[in-house]
Amino acid sequence: MPLSADEFRKGTAGPNGIESLLAAHPGTAYSLHEIEEALIGPGMNRTKHLDVFIADLTLLAPLLFKEKKIEYRVIDGVPYFRWRG
């Protein structure tokens, strides 16, 4: 259900779960499905929580491309991400 601008402003930004996960484990690289499972959990309602995962992923763009705090590599056709700091 869409929100009005006033309803949207009342919300909280919250932490970026992907950034927090990668920063907490700088020596480990994760594929997107591994990141999703770590954040959402294997037993969660994937449809309900996928929006949070996609939003967190979208907000990583500056860390990937501008600040270069997250490294990205494709290994055997699977993209992996790792905190660079």
Key traits:
85 residues, alpha+beta, Arc Repressor Mutant, subunit A, 49% helix
Number of domains: 1
Count of alpha and pi helical runs: 5
Structural class: alpha+beta
Tell me the overall shape. Answer: globular
CATH class wording: Mainly Alpha
Q: Radius of gyration from the CA trace?
A: 14 Å
**How many strands in all?**
3
Strand order of the largest sheet: 1-3-2
The third-level CATH topology is: Arc Repressor Mutant, subunit A
Major sheet details? 3 strands, antiparallel
Rounded mean pLDDT score: 80
Estimate the helix proportion, in percent: 40-55%
Taken in chain order, the helices and strands follow as HHEHHHEE
What percent of residues are in strands?
A: 15-25%
CATH architecture descriptor = Orthogonal Bundle
- Kindly, what is the distance between the CA atoms of the first and last residues, rounded to a whole number of angstroms? 37 Å
- Uncertain runs with pLDDT below 50, 5 residues or more? none
List the helices and strands and how they pair.
Elements: H1 5-9, H2 17-24, E1 30-31, H3 32-40, H4 46-59, H5 61-66, E2 70-75, E3 78-83
Antiparallel strand pairs: 1-3, 2-3
Could you characterize what this model shows?
The chain contains five helices and three strands; from the N terminus they run H-H-E-H-H-H-E-E. 49% of the residues lie in helices and 16% in strands. The longest helix is centred in the middle third of the chain and has 14 residues, at 46-59. With 85 residues, the protein is an alpha+beta fold. The chain has a three-stranded antiparallel β-sheet with strand order 1-3-2. 9% of the residues are buried. The protein has a single domain, classed as Orthogonal Bundle (Arc Repressor Mutant, subunit A). A hairpin with a 2-residue loop joins strand 2 and strand 3.
